[in-house]
Write a structure and sequence with these properties.
The complex is a heterodimer. Chain A has one domain. Chain A is built from 20 helices and no strands. Chain A is mainly alpha-helical. The radius of gyration of chain A is 22 Å and the shape is globular. Helix content of chain A is 74%, strand content 0%. The two termini of chain B are 36 Å apart. In chain B, strands 1-2 form a two-stranded antiparallel sheet. In chain B, 74% of the residues lie in helices and 3% in strands. In chain B, β1 and β2 (69-75) form a beta hairpin. Chain B has one domain (4-440, 448-491). Chain B is globular and about 80 Å long. In chain B, α3 (79-96) runs antiparallel to α11. By secondary structure, chain B is mainly α. Chain B has helices at 4-19, 25-49, 79-96, 104-123, 127-136, 138-148, 153-181, 195-200, 205-222, 231-238, 241-266, 268-295, 299-320, 323-355, 366-369, 371-385, 391-406, 409-435, 455-473, 476-491, and strands at residues 56-64, 69-75. Classes of the chains: A mainly alpha, B mainly alpha. The A-B interface holds A 367, 382, 387-389, 393-394, 397-398, 400-401, 404-405, 408-409, 418, 421-422, 425-426, 428-429, 432-433, 436, 440, 443-444, 480-481, 484-485, 488 and B 63-67, 103, 106, 128, 131-132, 135-136, 138-139, 142-143, 146-147, 154, 158, 161-162, 165-166, 169-170, 172-173, 176-177, 179-181.
């Protein structure tokens, strides 16, 4: 093995690790007696520097100016344009979370907070670039463990501990299922390398393996009926962490799901057996998510239910089992994550000001007090709802496009996926009701005279972060072709 | 490129108005008027230069080539009258909202976003692009109604938006089916959203049978088709005047335009199979709308249901699938756009701002107290009724002649009955509004005369009534543009 090449290929990750230790070290030594705000500032800067450096190297790798090895032994690392693009976007989004975490000074354990954030980001980067059963699983566990720990960081809040415990128990169980499934997959094929698994035959063992994998990843993606942890965790975790759970870890899990399903593409009988399971998960998630969201008054809880629904839409692209379908799923989860992270960012900004959980009604009159925030939120929510010309619309459209493309010549209504797309479309109409209810608070409701209505201070870095996210959502809706081109590889 | 200016102008206008400070409402209204007027001028220039039946002013660019999506715009004789009516109503909407002060900057931001979307739909020659603009036009409506609306505005706004998106969902599904199933003469799949290419190709006849109702109903929901019309009266009534003018004048036409351009234009065999059903529903629209209008006590609801009734003629014209009938349908879209907007303006702003009520029972001999306004309304009402000399007469005549030629006698008889009912409710409501004594107990207020119309109001009335009269007297100004384009569409029909 060429270690120099390996070093170059892993340079981004190394840079992040260095930043991680630097943040820990500086915080424990020099910043020991400093004010909390100062410590947050320094840790945030160091982490940001690491992510920026890592991001820069990944971008160079994508551009081809830095050599990367295509694939090493057993598919531990598969660095091509598609996977590297995902990694770059994950780093960029992690960078977006940092300023939000800095605002939200919930814990005195400053460096741990940022170190865990970096660790989670690092893990996500590995999940999306690994095509090895073990490698990907370990990376996914790295993500999950960091997220469990971050959920409980706010020790002042009892509910936070409860949510973290719930997250941990559910998460550990799901990891068990996933690992069980992966071991069956390995047992049936004798391969750890997903790229080498060819010519799968339809066998009960493989079907069982994939069903177990669906259960495991279903937890991570918050698919119904494995969604029970999501509302509590989203509501009670520190808001930036909830945002990162709802975006970054979703991207990683979705990418892993696609990678695991890749060998099934050329096994028609196995595919036939798996499609009903996936379709059932999709339908159930859309129903549970959308109907559950209708009655929420807490904004973070509402976003959790919307996440469940969106995971359901995602599977509409997965069932297509095609290259187009894969691109559409990745594109969708990316634009969903951008909008969801943005929405959580807006909530984080207010939660901070209020000092308690933000209810939807707390945003009444936001158009008057902080019009910029209202506009940003309008963009995020309309994108989540799938309104053109925002990216969320194109993402959904692409999913449906892929699903129909799989079998356009339907003889009866249940041939192909016309019925599934129709169902998803009906559910999107339902979802509009609660999205508009939230927007009503932001843009329609008159300002009442509670304290919250004083202009909300956003702060420079968080403001930039929200602006960039909003711009990205608009830009990807208007001009998606470059990103689609990168992801298609 | 000329026509594209309307879209660019509107969206820029939305941005400019949105960024102006809310306190500058006087300045904002002039800016808004200028932008709307510029859009109207551009539409008129387009109309003036157009002849023949082909698409003009074509602009083709790639947008998302990997999904077969292009940025293609252009117009033909079918879209031109609608561009004109959009421009007219946009200008008059500003004129009749002249005194708006609350959140004026945001109002015009949403207003122009809506108008930009509408222009976009009429100019798009790519199915995906058309759909995008169609949806862009929906969201501003919610805010226009929910923020600046009147009675039950939250409910009405939500209902309208959910109905709109329900319709769009049907359209989207049908659109995807068309994309994947359409093929050219040699049987090779087209895989494009380009309307021009799709028009040349064809969708398998069996598939057309189920795609047509999806797309047609999806669009027709926005056109106020019975039984999915209920968003229209509640939405119109709750909306602020400028928005209800746009809703009645333009947005309902979006739906009808989609039915004509996409459903009928791309799926002729489906249209032929379903036309009798469409005709039946259209006649129900006409009669039902008129009957319900007759029973309303709220003046704005009367106009709301009369819109539903008039849109029935558009649907009936489309259902004839004949040159005369469809020309009538397009002409009726123009005519109702102008007259419907005028009626909403009169009831919602001109009369309401003076009487502070819209309940007919509380009106007390308004003919004595606002004679000028009353006469204007009477003339507008007669125009809406289809009095010869106004555009409504010509368009309904075209539709009826078309229906006579291609549909059963029962349908024509039903439509005729509808016209009689229209006469009935118009005259009854004019009587109740202007000539009748108050039916509610006398409050003892002194019945003074109301102030006359202001200059912006007069200008708006003159513009709208003038265009209805102009087209009523010289219908060939529009029919000469509409018919050749429809003829080209009908030539693609299988025999």
């Amino acid at each position: 093995m060429d270690y120099q090449q390996l070093l170059l290929a892993l340079l981004p990750d190394l840079l992040v690790v260095v930043a991680l230790f630097a943040a820990l070290g500086v915080d424990y030594s020099r910043m020991r007696g400093s004010r909390l705000a100062k410590r947050y500032e320094v840790a945030c800067r160091i982490s940001a520097a690491g992510l920026i450096a890592g991001l820069a190297v990944v971008v160079l790798q994508i551009a081809g100016t830095m050599p990367v090895m295509e694939s090493n032994a057993d598919g531990q690392l598969v660095l091509n344009t598609g996977t590297l693009t995902l990694k770059a976007l994950l780093y960029a989004m992690g960078l977006g979370v940092l300023p939000l975490a800095k605002r939200d000074q919930i814990t005195p354990q400053v460096s741990e907070y940022f170190a865990l954030l970096l660790l989670a980001t690092l893990g996500m980067g590995f999940v999306v670039t690994s095509r090895n059963l073990l490698g990907a699983f370990v990376a996914l566990e790295l993500v999950s463990l960091s997220l469990y720990a971050m959920t409980v960081l706010n020790q002042a809040k009892r509910a936070s501990a409860e949510a973290a415990l719930k997250y941990l128990t559910f998460g550990a169980m799901s990891s068990g299922f996933l690992l069980f499934g992966l071991s069956y997959l390995y047992g049936a094929t004798g391969q750890l390398d997903l790229t080498q698994m060819t010519g799968l035959q339809h066998s009960p063992l493989l079907v069982l393996a994939y069903l177990l994998i669906f259960v495991g990843l279903g937890f991570k993606l918050a698919l119904a009926p494995f969604h029970l942890w999501a509302p509590d965790v989203y509501q009670n975790a520190p808001t930036p962490v909830a945002g990162w759970i709802g975006s970054g870890s979703k991207i990683a899990a979705a990418a892993l799901l696609l990678a695991l399903l890749q060998p099934v593409f050329n096994a028609p009988k196995l595919k036939e057996a798996l499609i009903p399971a996936l379709a059932a998960l999709a339908v159930l998630s859309m129903v549970v998510g959308n109907l559950g969201a209708l009655r929420q008054t807490n904004l973070k809880r509402l976003l959790a239910y919307s996440a469940i629904a969106n995971a359901g839409y995602l599977l509409v692209g997965v069932v297509a089992f095609s290259a187009v379908g894969n691109t559409s799923v990745i594109f969708y989860i990316l634009v969903y994550s951008l909008a969801s992270l943005g929405a959580f960012g807006v909530v984080a900004v207010l939660t901070d000001t209020l000092g308690r959980d933000a209810e939807i009604s707390d945003f009444n009159g936001c158009w008057k007090s902080t019009p910029g925030l209202a506009v940003a939120f309008l963009i995020f929510v309309l994108s989540l709802a799938g309104i053109p010309p925002l990216a969320g619309f194109l993402g959904k459209f692409y999913l449906f496009f892929a699903a129909i493309e799989a079998a356009p010549n339907a003889a009866t209504w249940h041939d192909g996926f016309y019925w599934l797309v129709a169902f998803a479309l009906i559910m999107s109409v339902v979802s509009l009701y609660y999205y508009l209810r939230v927007l009503k608070a932001f843009l329609v409701a008159p300002a009442d005279d509670r304290a919250a209505i004083a202009p909300i201070k956003i702060g420079g870095a968080a403001g930039v972060s929200l602006c960039v996210l909003a711009l990205a959502v608009v830009a990807l809706g208007l001009w998606p072709e470059p990103l689609l081109g990168l992801l298609r590889n | 490129m000329t026509a594209l200016l309307t879209i660019i102008l509107s969206f820029t206008g939305a941005l400019v108005c949105g960024l102006m400070p809310p306190s500058a409402h006087r300045r904002i209204r002039w800016v808004a008027l200028a932008i709307a007027a510029a859009g109207l001028v551009v539409s008129m220039v387009c109309c003036d230069n157009y002849s023949g039946g082909e698409f003009a002013d074509l602009l083709e660019a790639d947008w998302i080539p990997s999904l077969g999506i292009g940025f293609i715009t252009g117009y033909d004789g079918i879209s031109l009258p609608l561009l004109l009516v959009t421009g007219l109503v946009a200008v008059c909407g500003v004129l009749f909202t002249w005194n708006l002060e609350t959140r004026a900057n945001q109002f015009y931001a949403f207003y122009f976003a809506l108008i930009g979307g509408v222009y976009g739909v009429f100019l798009s020659l790519d199915l995906f692009l058309l759909f995008v603009f169609y949806e862009i036009a929906v969201v501003p409506k919610y805010f226009l109604i929910a923020i600046w609306g009147g009675t039950r505005r939250q409910f009405a706004a939500m209902k309208l938006v959910l109905y709109s998106f329900g319709g769009s969902a049907l359209v989207l599904l049908g659109m995807l089916a068309v994309f994947f199933l359409a093929h050219d003469a040699s049987g090779e799949a087209l895989k494009t959203f380009n309307l021009l290419a799709l028009q040349q190709g064809q969708v398998p006849v069996a598939a057309q049978q189920w795609i047509f109702p999806l797309i047609f109903v999806g669009f027709a929901i926005m056109a106020g088709m019975w039984p999915f019309h209920t968003w229209a009266p509640t939405g119109h009534v709750a909306a602020p005047t400028a928005a209800s003018m746009l809703l009645a004048g333009v947005v309902m036409k979006l739906g009808a335009y989609g039915c004509l351009r996409v459903a009928v234009g791309l799926l002729p065999a489906g249209a032929q199979a379903w036309a009798p059903w469409v005709a039946v529903v259209a006649v129900i629209n006409i009669i039902y709308g008129a009957l319900v209008a007759l029973k309303q006590d709220d003046f704005k609801y009367v106009i709301g249901y009369s819109s539903v009734s008039h849109m029935g003629f558009v649907l009936l014209g489309i259902a004839t699938l004949s040159l005369t009938g469809m020309t009538g349908a397009v002409l009726q879209m123009f005519s109702h756009g102008v007259i419907g907007a005028l009626l909403f303006a009169l009831v919602g702003t001109v009369i309401y701002s003076r009487t502070k009520t819209r309940m007919l029972d509380e009106f007390h001999r308004l003919i004595d107290r606002m004679p000028g306004i009353a006469w204007v309304f009477i003339v507008a009402g007669l125009a809406s009724m289809g009095l010869p000399g106004f555009s409504g007469f010509v368009s309904e005549l075209y539709v009826l002649i078309g229906a006579w030629g291609s549909l059963s006698g029962w349908i024509v008889g039903g439509a005729g009955l509808g016209i009689l009912l229209t006469f009935g409710y118009t005259l009854v409501k004019i009587h109740e509004a202007f000539f009748r004594e108050r039916k509610t107990p006398d409050t003892g207020q002194v019945e003074t005369a109301y102030p006359p119309m202001t200059l912006p109001e007069k200008t708006g009335v003159a513009l709208l009534l003038g265009s209805a009269l102009l087209i009523g007297l010289c219908p060939w100004l529009l029919t000469d543009k509409i018919s050749p384009s429809l003829k080209l569409m009908l030539e693609r029909f299988p025999n």
